[in-house]
Amino acid sequence: MALESNERPNRPIAKFESMLKTDDVYFFDAEDFEDIIHHYLNNGKIALAKKAIKIGLQQHPDSTELKLLNIEVLVFENQLDVAEQYLDELQILDATNEEIYIQRANIYSKKDNHEAAVALLNKALSLAENSFDIHSLLGMEYLFMDDFKLAKESFMRCVSFDEQDYSSLYNVIYCFEFLEDHDGAIVYLNDYLERNPYCEVAWHQLGKQYMFKKMHTEALAAYDFAIISDDTFIGAYFEKGKVLEKMGKYNEAIENYETTIKMEDPTSHAYLRIGKCHEKLQNDDMAKYYYYHTVHEDPLLDKGWLAITDFYFRRENYTKALYYVNKALNIDGENPLYWKKCAYINAALKKYDQADFAFKQAVDLGNYELKTWLNWADVVLNNEDATSALQILAQGQEFYPESAELKYKAAGFHLSNKDVINGRISLMDALKLDLQKLSLFFEEFPQYTKSEWVLKAVEKAEKSAK
Question: Is the Cβ–Cβ distance between 101 and 127 less than 8 Å?
Fold first, then answer.
């Protein structure tokens, strides 16, 4: 038996859920069904939304809005062909409904045809009275296309419609950042804050822009205003702590990090920053205390394990440093930073075989820094394998063909290996690349500081440079 909605004074959602628990069938207005479905979709309850759509279409088979909601769910579930078929049927009946073009755009977007999606959204714009949501969708499509300029403009329109639309505001600033236009972001945010002086989100974003430009005093002021606007804004305290840390005000930085811990469950990042501040203040016991809390809170945070490893490495306690870097490697053996640190520690312990292996792992995992090639070559040479050391330097030169350091080191290695011809060739190449770095060669290979042919080569290079 169907009951009229006015016989049940409960809210539509409560009434609908009550109906599902009984054998009764309640009657709802089409608008009530729309509210119910939107509620379930917004809360991720797709199964309940589908039940509401099914019953709604049974009671209101001609409702275009309910049919569009059905299509929206089909698109969400990637039933794109069925959704397109229903859209074709709807478009014959109502070709001026902008929602039809929006759903078609969603389908094209799912198919990675973002240009077609943009064209359809622009068509929807021409039909819509309220274009706020369409500009937001356009912005996302432009982001997919890496067109950050047009994306920024679309999200700016969203903010102009609703200045409380913080999602769009974040996207505007994201676009500015990607375009590396921090000055533009600062101007935009200051203009926004003229109209919304107590917007903690905007002050927070402004502080980040000042930090990009290393304007620490201005960043600090921005974060202070964010906290004045909302004294529970944890992000502002954390960012303020980072600024104070950069300014060398470690005790004040610790106070701000500790505030975030008091306000919410402690995070590994807050513990890590506090530990680093204590280390700067030479409070070694406190630094260790917070570093250990960091990895206890989040055992997968590589920066935490590296902080402990570096702590012992800087104090030349290489045995403990090796212990902790190995713990890190047991957690994530694919992390090149761990392997690079492991290599340096083993080199310091004169375990050259292990250092060689660790450097190889770091390079295989994508660590191609210049220092990696230079130090790896040193390790292999210390292992009395000059040929392999030169091969490593040659590999490094593929990544850094203009690196004089690699050439100077290769020259020294060749000469140490009694290969005078290749030694001279490498030295001449290095002198042509950067004569000023000759001191590096003499520092590492002092036995050649008075070599007649080396001095003549230097003299010739100096004349050429003039």
Answer: yes
